[in-house]
Amino acid sequence: DQQVKQNSPSLSVQEGRISILNCDYTNSMFDYFLWYKKYPAEGPTFLISISSIKDKNEDGRFTVFLNKSAKHLSLHIVPSQPGDSAVYFCAASDGRYGGSQGNLIFGKGTKLSVKP
Amino acid sequence: NAGVMQNPRHLVRRRGQEARLRCSPMKGHSHVYWYRQLPEEGLKFMVYLQKENIIDESGMPKERFSAEFPKEGPSILRIQQVVRGDSAAYFCASSLQGHEQYFGPGTRLTVT
User: Fold this and answer.
1) Quick one: pLDDT band at residue B1, thresholds 50, 70, 90?
2) Could you give the dihedral angle defined by the CA atoms of residues B60, B58, B45 and B26, in that order, rounded to the nearest 10 degrees?
3) How many residue pairs bridge chain A and chain B with CB atoms within 8 Å of each other?
4) Could you tell me if A73 and A7 are in contact, meaning their C-beta atoms sit under 8 angstroms apart?
5) What gap in Å lies between CA A38 and CA B4, rounded to an integer?
């Protein structure tokens, strides 16, 4: 039973256009959501996060939207650049250990290809 | 500021041997997490440690796997009597405070 789902294994976008990556979750106890970017043979790199008390967080070209009622979040990248081509993982935490510490539950990832 | 360091980056072991994976967290980070990634899968939580304490090992197989984070030195993930199914990428992450975790480059274990 996957608690975090990324239903699109891949996405192809033209350079300069918007990339929208989607993520759904089932556990209402999740209180924090994160997006990571991963290149082959490297570790995941933290990109952006959002608390469950917010519905939007923006950092430069990256914006994450959270719809709690739908248990859905999305990552928007605009404008997309060829260097954004990577696998993007959605992750969620329930802060179960206290002090905002909690293990992350990951989706299976979406491979983004940005074509020049 | 050095990031999370892991070594070795690649490790080949024969079935039945032991594998030792090391992780040095970012400076000042006292929270360490280990995750495993199988091909075409997301990362799966294994164990959460603080200095000298295992806080949660619920994601780690009960047999053959162990982890430690001593007062001095790196965190170690140890796999005894490896089997082919242990072949995966193992990632360590560290955290200071807050939810964000910062990952190392991973150790790719291949069991032949």
Assistant:
1) low
2) -90
3) 67
4) no
5) 15
- Cβ separation of B105 and A43 shorter than 8 Å? yes
Residue type, A89: F
| Residue in this structure with the two tokens 């199914």, named with its chain if needed | B85
Average of per-residue pLDDT values in chain B = 94
Is the dihedral angle over the CA atoms A53, B29, B78, B107 positive or is it negative?
positive
CA distance A61 to B32: 30
Closest CA to B67 of B1, B15, B23, B30: B23
Cβ contact A103–B45 (<8 Å)? yes
- What would the two tokens of residue A32 be? 């924090």
Q: Please compute the mean of the pLDDT values over residues B45-49 and round it to a whole number.
A: 96
One pLDDT digit (tens) per residue for chain A, 116 residues: 789 999 999 999 999 999 999 999 999 999 999 999 999 989 999 999 999 999 999 999 999 999 999 999 999 999 999 999 999 999 999 878 877 788 899 999 999 999 99
> Shortest CA distance to B69 belongs to which of B4, B14, B13?
B4
Closest-CA distance of chain B to residue A14, Å: 25
The answer to whether residues B4 and B71 touch, using CB atoms and an 8 Å cutoff, is no
